[in-house]
# Entry
Amino acid sequence: AQKITQTQPGMFVQEKEAVTLDCTYDTSDQSYGLFWYKQPSSGEMIFLIYQGSYDEQNATEGRYSLNFQKARKSANLVISASQLGDSAMYFCAMREGVLTTSGTYKYIFGTGTRLKVLA
Amino acid sequence: NAGVTQTPKFRVLKTGQSMTLLCAQDMNHEYMYWYRQDPGMGLRLIHYSVGEGTTAKGEVPDGYNVSRLKKQNFLLGLESAAPSQTSVYFCASSYSFGTARGQYFGPGTRLTVL
# Structure
């Protein structure tokens, strides 16, 4: 079953504007983590921001913030003051389970949103 | 400090051939992971390791084997390659479970199976 949903395959934003990338998730675990990664055209995956399920405040990292709405099971990424270098694929991911040899650990990625920043 | 490196960067195999992808990290991370990325499907976890000498299955382990003989290395093997294994393979490592630092990814290996 799909557990991370990114409904926007592509987005455009004007340079210096803010943009919100949507992510919804589904889990029955009480303890889980939510991540956002950026993948530029060069192909590498770059970690941006993390939100734990018990964190009461929304995570922020520089121009990135995570709008965490637990009851709605959403973890949207907000990029403020967009820059041309922000053009990339953005992936939402969720970690659930326990990282042991039992194989219960899950780290699931969404299908991504391609963001294009316009000059 | 090279971070996470992967060898090779590109490879073309014929169906039935075998190969090993090497992942190395110099950050002294305990946890290492192998993913595959296919168009329109995001990344999927193949296998992971919680420490030297340990491995566990992820979401899509069939057709792959792994080994973690040394803490810094995590090998992904394909014993008999199939066209369905054409993909981009990413290795990653992390400092600890559930870390707020996320995972550190290698540059990827693009594998084509004919």
